[in-house]
Amino acid sequence: MPATVRARMTLLYGGLFAVITLGVLSAVLWMQKRIVNDRVQDVPAHPNPVACDGVPEDMPCPPAAPVAPTPRFEFVEPGAGQGPKKVVGPEQFQDSLVGSQRLVILVAIVVITVLAFAVCWWLTGRLLRPLHSITATARRLSLSTLHERIALDGPQNELKELADTFDAMIDRLEKAVDSQRRFVANASHELRTPLAIQRTAVEVGLADPSPERLAEVRAEMLRNTLRSERLIEGLLVLAQGERGLDARAPVDLEAVVRQVVEDNAAAAERDGIAVAAETRPVTVAGDEVLLTRMAANLVQNAIRHNRPGGDVRVELSEEALVVRNTGPIVPPEKVDELFEPFRRLHADRTGSAEGAGLGLSIVAAIARAHGGDVRATANPDGGLSVTVALT
Predict the structure, then answer these.
(1) What distance in Å separates the CA atoms of residue 151 and residue 154, rounded to the nearest whole number?
(2) Residue 299 is assigned to a structural domain of this protein
(3) Model pLDDT for residues 180-205, shown as the tens digit of each residue
């Protein structure tokens, strides 16, 4: 069984504390021993008296011969009561004192070590308690419990920052799952609608198989077939953009933008919309087909979602591709939602005449596939300004 972080932290900090304590107490013991040695050597000497027993009274007492001083120390042995005192020399006194101090220090080391590991175990448990909450929340997470959050309380430290980051990640994951569910629902609706229309047209046409009625049914089926093709093509391009690029090649973005503007000039003129382009030579590394689709979606959306007599302005520089148009007022808080698949300003789904609602979603996916960024801002007088920055 692998060691837990709590056990590792306890061993690490408890062991360090015990080693430091052992070192300090050992140094104290060594210093005390040196002090005792110095003090014992400083004890003054006393001459030994010489008895004059056996010397005649008419003769003087001979002087005592000098002898080395021998200090005397008296100890009362434990439990001896008032019995005779035991006299020991300096070396015995020193050894006895140092031995007593060593025993006390060893007992202190054992007690401090046990207390150090116990306190470290308790403290690491309190410090790591938020991690247990994060782990428990992560284990409970599933598609049905993405609404749960850690919501860790307490001071702003590393653990709270980790919990807040985890909550933010869950927020993004929940939004991504909701977007995927909405995408699947809307895609199912968009694919089912033309099939239902075709089925109805066939049933009505077979009920009245006149040449005029068959011509109407044929035209209706062609329109729905084209819409289905556009939808499926848009989904494929969106999937390719989300997947990324397999290879890159130099692309003349100015030629791509001018070709797209020229191809959509007739549709703009038919709706009374003026299109102006201002470009500069720009070459980027990417996929020419995807970049052409990106520019076409921007220009077509700017023309489609416009007002009669409005205008579209396309600007290409080394920094970005910008497409502005006039049109209905767009609430600033709704701008980001327009980049979601099948999302419109007033409804999630769109009619057959309005396209599939994948234009800006495809633009964003292609921009990300090329390592770029796309953003949109609402114009004060109506319409949008979409900016694509490619690296």
Answers:
(1) 10
(2) yes
(3) 777 677 667 667 766 777 777 777 77
Q: Which residues pair with 283 in a beta bridge?
A: 252
Say how far apart CA 76 and CA 121 lie, in whole Å: 45
**Cα distance between residue 253 and residue 289, in whole Å:** 11
DSSP annotation string for 350-366? --GGG--S-HHHHHHHH
* CATH number reported for the structural domain that contains residue 261 in this entry: 3.30.565.10
pLDDT of res. 57:
60
Q: How far apart are CA 36 and CA 43, in angstroms?
A: 11
**53 domain-assigned:** no
Query: What's the Cα-to-Cα distance from 390 to each of 53, 199, 283, 375, rounded to whole Å?
Result: 121, 44, 10, 12
372, 388 Cβ separation under 8 angstroms: yes
Summarised one tens digit per residue, pLDDT across range 197-246 is: 777 777 777 777 777 777 877 777 777 777 777 777 767 776 766 667 77
Q: Of 95, 112, 127, at which residue does a domain stop?
A: 127
Q: Which residue has the higher pLDDT, 313 or 31?
A: 313
> What is residue 87's predicted lDDT score, i.e. its pLDDT?
53
Of 278, 280, 282, 284, nearest to 315 by C-alpha is 278
Which residues span the domain enclosing 314? 247-391
Q: Is residue 387 part of a domain?
A: yes
Domain count along the chain? 2
> Residue 255 domain-assigned?
yes
